[in-house]
Amino acid sequence: MDLSAAIWRKSSRSGGNGGQCVEVAANLPEVIAVRDSKDPDGPKLLLTPTEWATFVRGIKTGDFDR
């Protein structure tokens, strides 16, 4: 998929210390893209808007807490 038009924003949960940084591009039609800001040319995770909403809901409700 061509992601050249993606507008990436850093997650509000990512710290400013250069540690674990996640960026999200939600401006593309029918896909939400996620990448590691330390490896912008590396792999991207592509989700549908429904999958993204489910993922975000899971984070907010603690489904992924250790």
Structural class: alpha+beta
* Element pattern in H and E: EEEEH
Described by strand count, sense and barrel closure, the largest sheet is: 4 strands, antiparallel
Which strand order spans the largest sheet, edge to edge or round the barrel?
A: 1-2-3-4
- Poorly predicted runs are none
* Total strand segments: 4
- Portion of residues in helices? 10-25%
Q: Compute the number of structural domains.
A: 1
Gross geometry: globular
Instruction: Please tally the helical runs, counting DSSP H or I stretches of 4 or more residues.
Output: 1
Global Rg: 12 Å
Distance between the termini: 33 Å
Mean pLDDT: 90
Q: Provide the β-strand percentage band.
A: 15-25%
Pfam family, one: DUF397
Protein name: DUF397 domain-containing protein
Domain DUF397: 8-60
